[in-house]
Amino acid sequence: MRAAGWLDDTRASYDTVAVSYAGLLREALAGEPFQRGLLGLFAELVRARGNGPVADIGCGPGRITGYLRGIGLDAFGIDLSPAMIEVARRDHPGLRFEVGSMTELDLPDESVTGLLAWFSLIHVPDDEVPKVLSEFFRVLRPGGALLLGFHAGAGKVLKTEGYGGHPMKVYVHRRSTAQVAGRLTAAGFTVEAEMTHHPAPHIEGGFAFAHR
Q: Which residue of 42, 129, 150, 193 has the fewest C-beta atoms within 10 A of its own C-beta?
């Protein structure tokens, strides 16, 4: 795969599934008390650090962005997929959504108080993760809060179909909370908490809180 091939494949895949993805997951948080609790904790940390803009990186159709706005944060979303951003703007009129890549964020240095990457790092190859975390560090204000959600475990699988049977071509990377914490520390962050969630048998979700 050429250097930027994973970005092209991710963009094309999520353009293809955008409408189905939004429909399938639109009400998913209603049945996820652990996830709502973690997002609430993230909101408390942002408020404790002075409030201000919060970037939802890899926002998809904007369901988490909208939830964060609903609990009082000044959240906006960025996603690689133009189709996802179109759906986000349709479903959440009045909120700010932009097309962009987490590998090169079009945001000023130290411009956000909070940054969330909610299961959006899962398609980033291992050798690109330091670049992405460096961008997160750059745009966060000193003391700013970071929350990462990801698939926990080890290894990667090629996802060729999803969200209603549409074709996809993306690798899904699983990483342990210890691995993610190590990456965050290497990028200059101070890790505050790690958590592994078991929502169903043989399924693990990982979460990491950190600050700049």
A: 193
Write the CA distances from 48 to 6, 74, 200, integer angstroms.
37, 14, 33
Confirm whether pTM is higher than 0.85. Answer: yes
Distance CA 118, CA 46 (A): 16
* CATH at 13: 3.40.50.150
The pair of three-digit structure tokens given for residue 169, joined into one six-digit string:
């071509």
Question: What total number of domains does the chain contain?
Answer: 1
Question: pLDDT tens-digit profile of 138-171?
Answer: 999 999 999 999 999 999 999 999 898 899 999 9
Q: Which amino acid is at 102?
A: M
115 SS3 class? strand
Residue 79 structural domain: 5-211
Q: Quick one: pLDDT band at residue 3, thresholds 50, 70, 90?
A: very low
Separation CA 71–CA 36 (nearest Å): 10
C-alpha distance from residue 169 to each of 1, 112, 154, 197 (Å): 12, 32, 19, 26
Q: Where are the beta strands (DSSP E) in the chain?
A: 53-57, 74-79, 97-99, 112-118, 140-151, 156-162, 166-173, 190-200, 203-211
Q: Phi and psi for 190 in degrees, rounded to 5?
A: -100, 115
